[in-house]
Design a protein that fits this description.
Radius of gyration of chain A: 18 Å
CATH class of chain A: Alpha Beta
Largest interface: A-B, 38 and 38 residues
CATH architecture of chain A: 2-Layer Sandwich
Shape of chain B: elongated
Strand order of the largest sheet of chain A: 1-2-6-5-4-3
Number of strands of chain B: 2
Order of helices and strands of chain A: HEEHEEEE
Number of domains of chain A: 1
Distance between the termini of chain A: 32 Å
Number of helices of chain A: 2
Strand content of chain B: under 5%
Helix content of chain B: over 70%
Helix content of chain A: 10-25%
Largest sheet of chain B: 2 strands, antiparallel
CATH topology of chain A: Double Stranded RNA Binding Domain
Strand content of chain A: 35-45%
Number of strands of chain A: 6
Largest sheet of chain A: 6 strands, antiparallel
Radius of gyration of chain B: 45 Å
Oligomer: heterodimer
Shape of chain A: elongated
Structural class of chain B: mainly alpha
C-alpha cells in the first residue's frame, strides 16, 4: 500500500512536471517593449480561467512586421493555420495546442500599416 | 540439571538462579529454570531477582527485529522526497504565476489606463477578438465550399 502510494505520488508529480508553459515567440511581444509606444494599445485580461492578450497598432508597419515575424516563427508549432484576404484586411490565424488546451493567435492587418493582434486561450494552456 | 518436573530444593533453585545471573546456563537450562520457577512457590531475594531478570529478558525477546531496509525501499523514499519537493515547487510556481499579473492591464497610446476603464477596453478587445475568430471561421467555410464546388465540377460523380 505504501509503495503504491509512493508510485502514485511519483506519477502525479511527473504529470505536473510535464505541464510546461508554451514559451511562444509571440508572447515576448508583451514583455513591455510597446507599453509606452504612442501608436499602440495593449490589453492583458484574465477572466473566468481565460487569458487574453491583445495589441492594436495604428499606422506603424514596423511593429506589424515584428508581430508578423513572431507569428511566422511560431507557425511550425501550429496545429491549424490559415491566411485570408478579407474585405477589411488580411487575416492570419494560428491554433497551438499546449497542456491539452488550444491557444488562439490572430493578426488582422489593415491597409494603413495598422492591425489587431491577439493571443487567447485557457489559463491552463499557458502554465 | 534435573528434569523440571522433579522436585527441587530451594538451595538447588538458588544455585541455579545464581548461575542464571552469572550467565552460566545454556538457553535450554534457562528455559527449564524459568519453567521450574513458574510452577513452584520458591521465594527468596535471589529467586525474586532472577524472576524479574527473566521478565525483562522475555520483554526484550518480544521486541521484533525490524527487517533491514532494502535498496528499493531507500529508492522509493528518495523518489517520494523528490516528488514532494517537485510538488511544492509546482504549487509555488503556480501561485507566483497567478499573482504575477493583475486581472486586467491596459495601455492606450503609451499610457496605462485606470482599472475601471481598463476592464471596459479589455472587454471591447475581447469582443473584437471573437469577431475576428468568427470572420476567420466564415472565411474558412467559404474556402472549403469553394474547394468542394471545384472538386464536384472536376469529378461530378462524387
Amino acid at each position: 500500500m505504501k509503495r503504491l502510494t509512493i508510485i502514485l505520488l511519483c506519477i502525479v508529480t511527473a504529470i505536473a512536471a510535464f505541464a510546461r508553459p508554451p514559451k511562444l515567440i509571440v508572447e515576448n511581444l508583451f514583455d513591455g517593449r510597446f507599453n509606452n509606444n504612442k501608436s499602440v494599445s495593449i490589453s492583458i485580461y484574465k477572466n473566468n480561467g481565460n487569458y487574453y492578450r491583445g495589441i492594436t497598432v495604428n499606422n506603424n508597419p514596423g511593429i506589424i512586421k515584428k508581430i508578423a515575424d513572431a507569428i511566422e516563427q511560431d507557425k511550425p508549432r501550429a496545429s491549424n493555420y490559415s491566411e485570408h484576404q478579407g474585405n477589411d484586411g488580411q487575416y492570419t490565424s494560428l491554433q497551438i495546442i499546449n497542456n491539452g488546451e488550444i491557444i488562439y493567435i490572430g493578426l488582422q492587418r489593415d491597409r494603413h500599416g495598422g492591425g489587431f493582434f491577439f493571443i487567447q486561450g485557457k489559463e491552463k494552456a499557458f502554465k | 540439571m534435573k528434569h523440571p518436573d522433579n522436585q527441587f530444593t530451594i538451595e538447588e533453585v538458588e544455585r541455579l538462579c545464581q548461575l542464571y545471573q552469572d550467565c552460566q546456563l545454556s538457553i535450554l537450562e534457562e528455559t527449564e529454570l524459568e519453567y521450574v520457577l513458574m510452577h513452584n512457590d520458591f521465594d527468596s531475594p535471589l529467586i525474586k531477582g532472577t524472576k524479574e531478570l527473566m521478565t525483562v529478558s522475555r520483554l526484550l525477546k518480544l521486541k521484533t527485529v525490524r527487517p533491514q531496509k532494502s535498496v528499493w525501499s531507500w529508492a522509493f523514499r528518495a523518489a517520494a522526497s523528490v516528488a514532494i519537493a517537485l510538488s511544492a515547487f509546482t504549487i509555488y510556481h503556480n501561485i507566483k504565476f497567478n499573482h504575477q499579473n493583475d486581472n486586467c492591464i491596459v495601455y492606450v497610446a503609451g499610457e496605462k489606463v485606470s482599472p475601471e476603464k481598463a476592464h471596459k477596453l479589455a472587454e471591447a478587445d475581447v469582443a473584437k477578438m471573437q469577431k475576428f475568430r468568427q470572420t476567420v471561421n466564415e472565411l474558412n467555410a467559404q474556402e472549403e465550399s469553394k474547394v468542394e464546388k471545384f472538386m464536384n465540377q472536376i469529378n461530378p460523380s462524387r
